[in-house]
Specification:
Serine Threonine Protein Phosphatase 5, Tetratricopeptide repeat
């Protein structure tokens, strides 16, 4: 099994988050695709795709990505919060989506514990 470069993954995630905040969705999506090439099971990537689609007014596609993030990591809090908020019809309400780019996935926390290293 190939080792995941979590440092590069989080670099892309942080850059994508900033691009989303600046409304540069196409550039953010390009970085997220690069992130998927590093780790196609990253809940952070799917959560950020969800944020983009939510900001673009596509609640259905946003929820699909939030659910995908939850499937890959049932403990990933940002996706859980975003799913709850959107399922309560609060999408586009007063609450903003949770980006969560810097929050570690369960997989990353396990890797750190097993290897005594700190990524991200």
């Amino acid at each position: 099994m190939e080792e995941i470069n979590y440092d590069q993954l989080h670099k892309y995630l942080r850059e994508a988050e900033e691009l989303i905040k600046e409304l540069h969705y196409i550039a953010a999506k390009e970085l997220l695709v690069k992130s998927l090439m590093i780790n196609d099971r990253s809940p952070q990537v799917h959560n950020l795709f969800g944020v983009i689609y939510e900001y673009q007014g596509n609640k259905e596609l946003a929820m699909r990505h939030y659910r995908a993030a939850n499937v890959f990591d049932g403990t990933y809090r940002p996706a859980i919060e975003n799913m709850i908020r959107c399922s309560d019809n609060n999408c586009h309400g007063q609450k903003h989506p949770c980006f969560g780019a810097d929050e570690l996935s369960f997989e990353e926390r396990r890797y750190q514990a097993q290897n005594g290293v700190n990524h991200g």
